[in-house]
Amino acid sequence: MPAITFPSVPHWVPAPVTQKDIDWADLAIIDFSKAKTPEGLAEQAIVARDAMHKQGFFYVINHGLDQAQVDRMFDIATVPFDQVGEDEKQRFVMNSKATGEYYGYKPQQYWHIANGVKDRIENYACKFSLVFISHPAALQPLLPEIQPFIEFTHRNVLNEVERLLSIGLELPENTLPDMHPYDETNHSFFRFMAYNPRPEEDEAKSGGVWLKGHADHTSLSALWSQPVTALQIKDHDGNWRYIKHIDNALVINCGDTTEYISGGYYKSAIHRVIKPPEDQNGYRRVGIFYFHYTSDDTLLKPLLESPVLQREGLTKVIDGPAPTQEEWRKARTASYGVTDLKKSPTEQGIEYEILNGVQVKHYS
Q: Domain for residue 1, yes or no?
């Protein structure tokens, strides 16, 4: 049988790993290879439960793809930015403020960062099923590779993480995966992302912040690990710490949806992106992300049948009526980076906005 030949794309050469002395976050590692026995599954569920309760971040390793497969997707990740002309990009620019959807291109300098400085981030995002929207010509031959990668991340990574988190709440293991189906009721989305270096003037004005501290509005967010040291978590002790690169690993973080349906037991992780260390100056940070939602009609209220929530007395997170996943994701998407934020009168370095009756914080 002849070997499958994939379209040729330029090879992405990642930045060298930083040699600077870095204050790394101490994150748990979930090893899927250990979860193949009942004993291992129970053990990994405890690790996942404790990590999401304490920090809202962890790594996943031994997920089932090899390094070459992931490297190929990073090659593909540069195509929408480097192989598509500006005129064609304009035909696919997102209109998130009007639609509440991220699909298409987010151009650079769309989000406000600080002191008049806008971002240098370019995104290309699409719904989990690529047939629902059209794509630039350069991406068309690559869709047969991108689609199974998306499905793998949804089903084989995030649904498996949700199985562990369900067990952690002492619920049937299919509870959270069933709330995140791979079908038309779900609006999970995939994103290629490029953080481009900024002028030093912008770095000074923004304090080196590339993307303000925030919590994702998703259930879970998955980032395929890459070596540019820029992502930080606001750790459980209140300090910002860097997320370390691990070859062929995913970085998983908890979002608002999981916090709300777990009654606040699982913590939505505050994170930001800042200027990399000096030995990585000038390198572009290329990212591959998958943002996971429940079905659109899911009410974001606690799973009160959980024995964990019952013991902890966790009955609500949101004051007032719980929004649906659709209401929450559209409100957060439409407002992000383009609304006027108010400074917190009690918390230094924090701004906020009110969406669906919920105070959404942003961190410097």
A: no
